[in-house]
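Researcher: Going back to the complex we discussed earlier. I've cleaned up the inputs and rechecked each line, so this should be the final set. Can you rerun the prediction on the complete assembly and write out the structure?
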Amino acid sequence: MRKLLCLFVTLGLTANVYGATPPDKTGPASGVEALDVIRGKVTGSDGPIPGATVTVVGTNTATVTDAGGNYSIEAPQGAVLRFSSVGYTTKEVTVTSATALNVILEDDDNTLNEVVVVGYGTQKKGNLTGAVSSISVKENLESRPIADVGRAIQGSTPGLTITIPSGEVGSDPTIRIRGALSSVQGNSTPLILLDNVEIPSIQYVNPDDVESITVLKDAASASIYGAKAAFGVILITTKTGGTKDKISVNYSNNFSFQNPFKEYKMGRVNALKYSIDALDRVGGTAYGAFYRVNHESYQRAVEWDKKYGSTIGPNDPTVYGRDWYVDPGSPTVKLGVRTYDPYDYMIREWAPSQTHNMSLNGSVGKTRYTATFGLLNQSGMLKPGDSDKFKRYNGALRLSNDINRYLTIRAGAMFTQRNKVMPYATSSTTADPWLYMYRWSSLYPMGYDENGNPIRSPWSENMAANEASMRHNYINMNAGTTINITGNWKVDVDYTFTNEDYSIARNGTRFTAANSWVAGKPRNDADGKPVYVNSDGQVVSSETAGAIRAYDLSYDAYTANGTNPDHIYLRAENSYRHTVNALTTYDWRINPANEFKFIAGLNRVTTDGKYNWTQRTNLLDITNPQFDLAVGDITGSGGVYWDAQLGYFGRINYVHKDRYLLEGNLRYDGSSKFPADLRWRWFKSFSAGWIASEESFMEWTKPVLSHLKLRGSWGVIGNQTVPSDLYVSNMTASQILWFVNNNRVNAVGSPSLTVPNVTWEDLETLDFGVDARFLQNRLGITFDWFRKTTKNMFAPVEGTTWTIGGTAPLGNYGRLTTTGFEVAVDFNHRFTNGLGINLRANLDDAKSVFNDYTSSRLMGSNYDGKVYGEIWGYETDRLYQYSDFELGADGKPILVDLTADMTRYYTSGGGKAYQLKDPNGVYQPRFQNSTGAFFFGPGDVKFVDRNGDGEIDNGDGTIDNPGDMKVIGNFTPRYNYGFRIGADYKGFDFSAFFQGVGQRSVWGEGFLAIPGWHVSDGAMPAAIVDDYWTPENQDAFYPAAFNNAGTANVNNMQVQSRYLLDMSYLRAKNITLGYSIPKNVLQKAHINTLRVYVSLENFFTWDKLNGLPIDPEEVAGYSMFNTTNYNSGRTGVGTPTFKSASLGLQLNF
Amino acid sequence: MSIKKNISYLLIAASSLLAACNPDVLDRPELTKVNDNTFWKNETDLRLYANDFYVNYFVGYNSSFGTAYTPLRGYIFADDFTTAGTQGGFESVVPNSRGASTATPTMLTSYSGPSWNFYWVRKANVMLDRMSKKMQGTIPAEQYSHWEGVGRLFRGFEYSRLVSVFGDVPYFDAEVDPSNEESMYRERTPRGEVMDKVYDDFKFALANIRTDDGVGYVNRYIAAAVISNWMLFEGSWQHYHGLDAARSKKYLELAVEASQLVMDSGKWSFGSDFKSLFASENLASNPEVLLFRSYVSPLLTHAIGSYSNGTEGQAAAANLNLLKSFICSDGKVWQNSEVPNAKNFGIRNLTLTRDPRFEATFLDTVNVPAATLAYAHKFASRSALTFMYGGTYPPEWGSSTNTSDAPIYRLAEVVLNWIEAKQILAENHGGSAVTQADLDKSVNAIRNRPLDAVATAKGLQKTAPLMLTSLPEDPDRDADVSPLMWEIRRERRMEFVFEHTRLNDIRRWKKLQYMNFQKGEYSAGPWIDARRELATQLTASYVSRLRVMKEDGTVITYDGTNADQMVGYYVVMNYANRVAFTDRVYLSPIGRNEIQAYKERGYNLTQNPGWGE
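Model: Rerun complete. Updated structure for the full complex:
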């Protein structure tokens, strides 16, 4: 079948040559027709229109107007000339006898005539039948301090969800179209096409280079892209070709300064108080990893804060006796007194960044050219080491040439280098400096000790570190041709070669610092006599009252030779891709009432990649890490990967009477990911539209309703984004940590469990939409409802249990149904006084439900009807108070043995509880699971006995008997919205763009989200330690202090409604004020346009996190370094999200 | 412009497209992995496959800061150890899930074993299955039977561990098909039936594994050491838990047989001093060690030496009950020993009067990083201790960069398994009585280890041999344990302290009641005179925190003025007994979700006794 199809496409391309009838004498494309040269001037309301397109309708003859709006074109008498220019209504004029034809174009505020880039072609916006959004480049990409297109278009388009997981510069935003999840396996990321070729990262695109962005959201519009388009498509086209002989130069720049978007406020003395309260409750003696706190040192810390809190700052060295001391009764124990804020040491404030872009456009003869250059130099938020930076260089050249009327050739080259550099202090991605910054208590010193040595800390290590870099070089070379067989029949063939080089270099070092991780060393004077200090750190004689033996931190080279990061590491990866797109397009206009358009083509993509890495330990010279200057072990590995997709497609568009629109797509796709007999599959899609407002019976609505279109679409796309060996039982081979005679041993792992008949996953989308415009097109509303059904979903085989002894294999199981809606509203108006305003707003929502996947009813399974992202938890009633308990003579609750009257749990297991006053009170023994030392008492969480059975539990763990649990939230971003207000007046322009998420919940993990997460490590946000329950603060939000020792879901901190993080937010994404210098001023300097602006990005955020130092947009555990377990999945520990203030200019001459 | 040109353009385009159409482009199999269908060719393949087992079963000192299955850091939940504050309790809640399928060693501390994880069962079953399907007759019979023995040894090992944690577990001797519910949702096989299968595997392994397969690889003797451990565990469990006398006998006899194989081989001897077993950079030439894990910086290092270096904290440290259990060097218990100062529990005196292993295990001064002040330096070399108090440790003894080799199996374990199994057989199953010669080959051979130079310099003596004719009379002996058995158990406790045995020993002996720390000696450490040994704590900040316990059990709390009364057993700070527990903690509960998953599909997974809630 596929051979036949292949033959058909190929022959289709050639057959038309053999079958080509000699050009019809009367046809418009005739080469022998007598032509006149028509000349004229195109003007608009502001004077001559340069760059307007003049086309002879029905032919490929076209030209553009020069700077003075003048044109000349050859056309036969009676031909129709079409004059078009962005912002003006297109006008068609028939050539009469005159050879001079001046045309005046009307201003156009009718967006329906905009041409939108769609799959392998363009379409008039008014004639779209699929769910397609085009994004305004001008509004979203220009004059903003943003690093990439992804960040720029966040919030701009309904159905397009962009999340920026952290403030890490150089990282990719996550992009989803219609729902957070479309398939439980692989990824759900849309296909990003740059000029019809897949681009591996949106970071490669220079925002300044972008001509248009279109988002294809439903299967009907995306399916023509086949295999990789299952999760939607983002089409980006680049600016091509100047149209004037004179060179046009554009230059723009932006200088910005970045600061954390909110105050990252950590607890200081109050955090120590929390520790002491927890200590008393647990029955310990001291908390802390390297600097401990006990009752005595806490009192000293309180005094220190009073005495020095306002005078000693981050630049003051840490002094023994004053800031810390050694417990003389336990000389390995260091006790801290001074509190520090790691923010002062770790975070760069007002980090500078800049961008510069330049482009040249023009034409020489029949050759049009565009050359663009871009530079981005962005500072990261990590202060020590001064090398957290991201740089990008872009260069592109695009040429096209009309060799003759039949043949256009084009070629382009693009180069992007992205380079992220940072201090290389550790290779760990599960505990990097950002985790360590908020791991230890406020007693943990940074900065220098009194001997001038840096104190071992993430600060000192980043300062001392050499650089690591993650560098991508991306090259895209393309060549293509358009063959115009007849005026309405053309063939496009494009070939693109892309190459991506990715290298990671890690230049390690060995650290030397005042070693705060080990016991201090007794300090002796030059004569070897013991030194004593007082509580201000001053040296005194040993007899002085309060004198204590002085200690120093041991100044150590504490990185053992060869251990992390004493190494040099280099990883090189190269992948290249060949993409062939070939298609033929035939426009068949039977009569004005019946227009057809046919496309048939093929698309072939092959990807090949390989990588290898080498590491050598034990650097000879830590200031110059080199492979040959390292003497330790050499380790290394590498690998290759490849895959291919081949697809044949066809599309038919039919327009009847300009109001009935039909489109059908068919695609035959093959992928290398599946067994040979299951590789190929047909996918089809249809869409239809009805422009009701064109009907005569709707004429009466015209004064208000300018345009009304109803549309619907249905289609299926295949997804194949899974590993290529799912159907093969493979085993991995590797070196293991077992040595024989000092040599590492190799081993082969267990064969993977497999389902042999793995094949395509089918994503079916049904979409209904309405486009309406009112008031002479000034107000527009677009609404879409959709249902996306993922069938034959890639998922682990259902219903396995642990006895299979491995990861359940992936096959095609179950169904995920995502339903949602999208609304967009826009309004444009220009007042007679010249004030123009425009408003845009959009809102979308989607939710995904599992069906037919598993018969299990367990809450944790993907049971029938489960909403993706749902969080099961308990409902919090309130905090217990003293009045809830029977109190003993000492005023404290009484610990009693659990009996069968009180609970059915642990009455035989030695369980105890504080006796409740209410004889029918509900005990909560199932949560007292911190090896028994935790009992619910005053200040602890009281849960709601939802099912009234007298127990707080999760029933049998199923949704049918969930005990007292219920769905308390959903971690997917819901109700995404954005709105923009713009205005311009007399050269001034202003815009404010807001973006937000209406609903998202997260059950936090780690220090920053969970009170008492790990008290012996110690870090705690001020928001928690300023408002936890104590006998003095019984009205607190957070429960009484306890140390949960790093364990999730224990004691008070069961997943529950009260402490579920509300991650909804609203951000002032961008506020820009610009001024365009009047043209008459500029003319003297031969400048066409000059605009200066100031722009604020992310400047205001409204969230509901009660002051927790967490970005509501952040995704725990996700970063560019580790996408699954970054910083051990802890909430909020990553590069802080930043806001920026910037200014810049845009210049054209 | 001619049509001809157009034609040629199109021909070029068309022919290049024909090339693009070649569907063979889609044949792109994974290249970086080994295929199950084409693997299993020869002995090299089998060795590669089997190597994967090693890091799981022979954890040694683990790696980096890993604690699972490590001495001192992983095996700290036992009656030997006390922590400051409230003692860590047994599990008190049935977990939602106990399942795992990870290949990384993970450990349930209070059961000394793995989770509900069948990864290694499958690994072994796949090996045996592929061998029988693809290699029978294609590789020499000797190779075949050796590797079948290896596969069955590891399968038996895993089932022994699973049984030790869960009791009854579903038994599989073939790979489970993930699409076959019937086989996957198998009910728990009764413990005895599982262990009979394990017994068969072990018997086969013992008969077929090579006696020598190169240094660092499993051979028949190493297999015998594995078997001796697990057959003693199960044989004694069956006996003391009153399960099945016949099985108890059968397993214990295999424990004896396996141990005997090692002992009779003459390949190993007690030629090494005690400390060298645990703190040597290279164990390759140690005459007592059958198998060790080799640590090579920087690729594989550990932190066990660091946690024994005198400075790192020992939150769980030796309590007085353990200190009291050490035999005096005259072979008698402290109550009736004739060694001078035998009743003095000052730490320095203990190192001088007790079995020399005490000195090789504990510092001879009180050391506050240990919660009980009795600091274990068993896993650090003597030179490591010179860096105490603010010194800068070399990587070998600091941080996670230690490179001392970890002993996995050593002769002492084999002989103590052997003598205990023999004694249980003798007492309960009509086995021949343990003779003096038996003791001389086991307990007394261990006691006759050479002493290192430091011990000799301190004037330590080897402990007098254990004589059948004059067994120590321990007033603290449990009434239900014979005097000889009591001494065999004591020998294990002294020999293996901080290693992997203690919790499993008291579990199999049905003596988990030892974990109820009611008696004062569990709250205390060695005898101290605070004015002399802990003067630095006689300060205001230790008021009401520093406590000692007198001989009669009264506790004196430091009040700032009674320094001269602060003489007695050191009482651990803020000590409190662990939360009460019942016999259900002998076995781990099965996860609630696992039981529910069975139920949903009409199968039955039973819960362990006492966990029904």
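Model: Worth noting: Confidence is low (pLDDT under 50) at residues 1-5, 7-32 of chain A.
Researcher: Good, that matches what I expected from the previous run.
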